[in-house]
Amino acid sequence: MTSLLSRFKTSAAGDAKAAGKDAQKKKEEPPPELTPLEKLLQNAGPFGNTCYCNSMVQALYYTTVFREHVLNYPPLSPSETPEGFKPKVNVVVRAPQAENGTANQANGKKPLTTAEALARRKQINSGQVIPGTQQGIKPEDKPDTPEYKKKQAMLKGPILELAQENPGAYGMDECTFTGLRDIFMTLVEANSRTGVLSPQRFLEIFKRDNEMFRNSMHQDAHEFYGLVLNDVISNVERNAKRLYEQEAKRANDGLLQSLESAFSHAVMPTSNGVNSPGTGWVHDIFEGVLTSETKCLTCETTSQRDETFLDLSIDLEEHSSVTSCLQKFSAEEMLCERNKFHCDHCGGLQEAEKRMKIKRLPKVLALHLKRFKYTEDYSRLQKLFHRVVYPYELRMFNTTEDAEDPDRLYELYAVIVHIGGNAYHGHYVSVIKTEDRGWLLFDDEMVEPVDKHYVRNFFGDKPGMACAYVLLYQETTFEKVRAQQEAEGLEEVRIASEKADVATEESGQAGLTNGLTRQVSQPNAAPSDDRETMAKLAHASTAPGMVLSSPAPPLPAPFNQVEGSAALARSQTTKAEPKSKEEKKEAKAAEKARKAAEKEELKAKEKQKKERDVQLREAQKTEAENLKKALEESKKAVEDESSKSKESAGPSMGILNRTNRGSKSMSRKSLNFLSKDKSKRGSGEAPTETAQNGEAVNPEKAPHTPKIKERFSFSLGRKKSHNVLS
Amino acid sequence: MFVLPPPPRYPTQAAYNAAVAAGQATPMIETNNILTTPEEQFLVGEGTYVLKEDLHLATPPPHPSEAPVINPNPLATTPQPATAGTKVSLLSFAIRPPPPAFFRLTSATTLSESIAEHPNESRESHDAKLSSDGEGRSASFSDGGPSTSVTAVSAPAFGEGNASLAPEKTKDANKKRKPKNNMTKSNSSFISRVIINESFTKKLADRPGDGLFAFANINRAFQWLDLSSPNKADYLTKILFTKAHCLCHAVNRVTKGPGHLDLIMGFSTGEIIWWEPISQRYTRLNKNGIINKTPVSEIQWIPGSENHFMAAHMDGSLVVYDKEKEDASFNPDEEEATVDGEGEASVRGVDHLSRIQILKSVHSTNQKTNPVAIWKLSNQRVNAFAFSPDNRHIAVVSEDGTMRIIDYLKEQLLNIFNAYFGGLSCVCWSPDGKYVVTGGQDDLISIWCPSERSLIARCRGHQSWVTSVAFDPWRCDERNYRFGSVGEDGRLCLWDFNVGMLHRPKATSVRHRGSISSRNTNLQRAETQGTTASRMRSNSGYSGLEGAEDNIQGISISVPVEPRSMTATIPPVLTKKADKDPLCWLEFTDESIMTSSKTGHLRTWQRPSDNPAPAK
């Protein structure tokens, strides 16, 4: 222990290194006694590895059109709901309260007093490590760390788990779609503002259908996105087919034949990506059409081929913009040497010129930034840290002449961020623009409001290895964008003026408070340490009910009812508020105030945004009659109502029935571009994929604890500042 | 008063090692500017531009009392302070000949007011009459105007007619007012330290009269360089600020002279410093953000004014300050009552797309203190603005993707133009004032003609956001314009455009489809205006525009986005990877093109020597 202490002292001085050393120290520490709840949390790690899913599902949930469609499909007919009311999702709510109590006692710690907490927070804010307290405190016990917030979220609950479903509730077999729909349904229906929802059930189903995800390796969020959408497409099509068959059966006698033939006409094209009534909504939202024009250089014949896509995978260049990368994507390309083009006209392999253009723009444009590049030297995927800027709004330059609405305006609404040094480790979070709460950061069970500028932190050049990986843009109009900008600004102005009043009263102390409400520099690595030490225990204790994929303790996804998310974060911020006000009075020395004022100006803007949610909510509760706030009020009220009305919509359950994902839908995926890549770089990407998958699948067929453990310690040694898994 | 301890001036390696061993914050070592001459060049029609030198300005280490908080959590929501890449203000005491192309232009055509005197020119002629100082700024400007060779009607001075704006008479009319505080002896916690070159006075005395000075910001440092000195890497003065970063700065060209310079700097804290470099005196304005707390993104002297300058704050307001006035906390509500009926009852409900919100008018009678005027343009950050050559208008670009043309004398919003998508980051006027060029986050440069309310062309060539645009007046004439641009892609692009040569793409078949042309009426209007009559009478400057102003009360003054299929596209005549880092500033001088990067590389590209600039 003495060695530990001395090490600790040095780290306290060189604050930058403290984080890493902290992590090391953790490793040597004997595992403290655990409470059930802590187990739960730590289990999230090794099993976990669901951040790819959490970040994507959140993004899909906030894709408004998609959410609406998922919730309204399948259209419930009386025959489907014999009980006469709408089915409900089976949700198990675990009450975290009791465990909370035991947790505190078991730790043998008294809750921090206000002053203590404040002092500590201050230290953390200034980037220092707290010498005394550090010893026994785990990262999740330090206020204002992501770990702490996550723990609080779990403590606060409710923790919702989707239970084993009622068979046939939607009249559909259990599949990825029903799993997703259950999650959406639960989110919409939940009446508490905060809470954590476990995606476990959904993942089970998903993994059942997608073999390569059946391990606890670090998964690719973009791949997940493609597979989920394809699953949803095939599930919906399958269901449509089944419905037609039912119809056909009901319509007995001679009609049967004609109906069947009619339906087969209706359904068959669907699988080719053409819409059929009732099932085409996924295509309508996400699918676009690319045209590849190939001009044979021998006979000058131009041939065109249309392909559909669900997302565009774009190559990156240093110091470029997404716009320009997209244009590169459509740049002309020579097909020669090994990649000659088979010309039907000349009848043989010929040199040709090829270019890809967009013929139909999708409503939701998913851009996959190819940050992972296979390097021969290392025979592995390297992560590219190129600085690639992305604008809040976007139009596409590379459309064909006859494209409909070639100037369609898109707005950025979700950024899936990959944090980590390469493709095999890391963490995913998402930053999503919600309809009512502005931009939110979703980090597994933590949700935090962020300001608009925060979205620009992931261009790739900032320290911390956090880069935008998937960008989701949705169709919008110029007028909407303008209106939104005005509204955003109005909020800022309102808060600025309130802020100004406060500032004059308290001579700018707000600067300090400001820092306090913010999340602080904490290494994410530490918790994974704990997980490591806990791995065996965890697996022993929490295995019940896991069928397919190793022990499955709930890995909670932040669950938001539209209101919920921000409120969760808010609950933390508000806690900080009153304390900091006390402190303000203590530190009224004029000099300090002046310094703080300077600080405050810097941060004022960001702070306004952050606090906006807080104030809004408070205003809503306490000053409903306040005319000044009437505007926001009424808006909110409408939202509340609408979300409540959604709650009354009925969910249901599916039966367990394995649906095969057709290879057809697979081809609809972005893998389309493999061909292009290949031709570009000869050996291209395909080997990469297989290499990755192979590696991913083989050693992990049956996940063992030791395996996981090994991986953990390895990655820990490499990078200390990140959550290695999850 | 608590004073920050001055950092060690020349920390030794031993001290550094000791500190590292003791685990303390290490004393940082000042690095020096580095001058190199890498061999690079590029070829354009007129000849070869050669990289003359690369001056790398040293990025100062963080202030010891503000140890950098290294946050290992990349998701930390801690706000980062606003910062900006290196921007440079160039200045010469001597009267440099204005671009000859410009002269030809002005004498050959009797343009109306849209061609006013070239800024330099008028200011130079003004310089000679510095003694008339005490007359007040409006008077001194109006006697500067007619003295130019151009037949242009001089624009009235800003705030003319407002008696309360006239400066107090000084006892000695020839003596310029200096800022209050001595910078070297300052114990302000805002300024960390000031380093003046040891042979400062000698250097100033020995230098050629027409040599270029450069003022440059980098991180928390601000440097004053003499580009005509053989040792140009040695700064004349270097100011280190404690925490605030200087984001923008400007030199007053009216008051400049061998014994006096008025320089203003805008900071990330919203504060503004008026600095007189020769006597090393300064004044802090908007102290502690008493008038506006948001960072200053752009600052410029009002053309022809000795005292007044305009600052763009990041909350979307433009504020006019008087360098000599005291700050007073500003309450818009009080002020509005005194303003002529323009006052809004509340901040809310203002339609920023139809007019500017005048929180305080320049015509307000209450002019004892700063601010002189405050206009709220929108709620989005203003990124840059530029004064028109005729000194009547400003073009303001914002983060919301708008370019506003404002008659700042009348405090009136004339037009709003919209970027193709994304925010706009930079703007400049053509030397004759006919065109405005903007660059932004759509990777495009757009050429606008404000008098026709139309988009002339979009320029495609950058691979990332455009950060700075500037015209090359030495290569512009009546019909042909040359301008340059730099961007986040580290590229320098040069563009030529000739109004007669522009063709709109033929693909009109698609124009009635799609989201943009849903606003058909407006589009039609802009279209007809743009293509027919008004293109011919582009000489008439703003007359068309003013006329339009009257009859558009009902219609939005906002010019809709033109679809791509309707717009001419210009390719660059040159694109050159001019730096490995993102570039952020560009300016043309008579002998070179100068660029600067975010990391502080100030590069000078010599103009072709086989075709020397006629000015030389």
From TrEMBL, chain A:
UniProt cross-references to Gene3D superfamilies, sorted A to Z: Cysteine proteinases (3.90.70.10)
Keywords: Hydrolase, Protease, Thiol protease
GO cellular component assignments: cytosol; nucleus
Ranges of compositional bias, category Polar residues: 506-525, 657-673
Compositionally skewed regions (Basic residues) per UniProt: 717-726
Known EC number: 3.4.19.12
GO MF terms held by the record: cysteine-type deubiquitinase activity
Domain USP: 39-476
Bias-annotated ranges (Basic and acidic residues): 18-30, 576-647, 701-712
NAD found in the keyword field: no
InterPro entries attached to this UniProt entry: Papain-like_cys_pep_sf (IPR038765), Peptidase_C19 (IPR050164), Peptidase_C19_UCH (IPR001394), USP (IPR028889), USP_CS (IPR018200)
Keyword Hydrolase: yes
EC primary class: hydrolase
UniProt catalytic activity: Thiol-dependent hydrolysis of ester, thioester, amide, peptide and isopeptide bonds formed by the C-terminal Gly of ubiquitin (a 76-residue protein attached to proteins as an intracellular targeting signal)
GO terms for biological process, alphabetical: protein deubiquitination; proteolysis
Region spans: Disordered: 1-36, 500-536, 565-726
Subunit structure: Interacts with creA, creC and qutD.
Record-stated family: Belongs to the peptidase C19 family.
Role description: Ubiquitin thioesterase component of the regulatory network controlling carbon source utilization through ubiquitination and deubiquitination involving creA, creB, creC, creD and acrB. Deubiquitinates the creA catabolic repressor and the quinate permease qutD. Also plays a role in response to carbon starvation and the control of extracellular proteases activity.
Protein name: ubiquitinyl hydrolase 1
Organism of provenance: Apiospora kogelbergensis
UniProtKB/TrEMBL annotation, chain B:
Protein's name according to its UniProt entry: WD domain-containing protein
Recorded coiled-coil stretches: none
A GO biological process held by the record: carbon catabolite repression of transcription
InterPro entries noted in UniProt: WD40/YVTN_repeat-like_dom_sf (IPR015943), WD40_repeat_dom_sf (IPR036322), WD40_rpt (IPR001680), WD_repeat_creC_regulators (IPR051362)
Pfam short name (any one): WD40
Basic and acidic residues composition bias: residue spans: 115-136
GO cellular component: cell division site; cell tip; nucleus
Composition bias type Polar residues, residue spans: 139-152, 515-540
Record has Repeat as a keyword: yes
WD repeats: 417-448
Signal peptide feature range: none
Keyword terms: Repeat, WD repeat
Family note: Belongs to the WD repeat creC family.
Binding partners and assembly: Interacts with creB.
Origin superkingdom: Eukaryota
Residue segments, region Disordered: 113-185, 512-540, 596-616
Organism this protein belongs to: Apiospora kogelbergensis
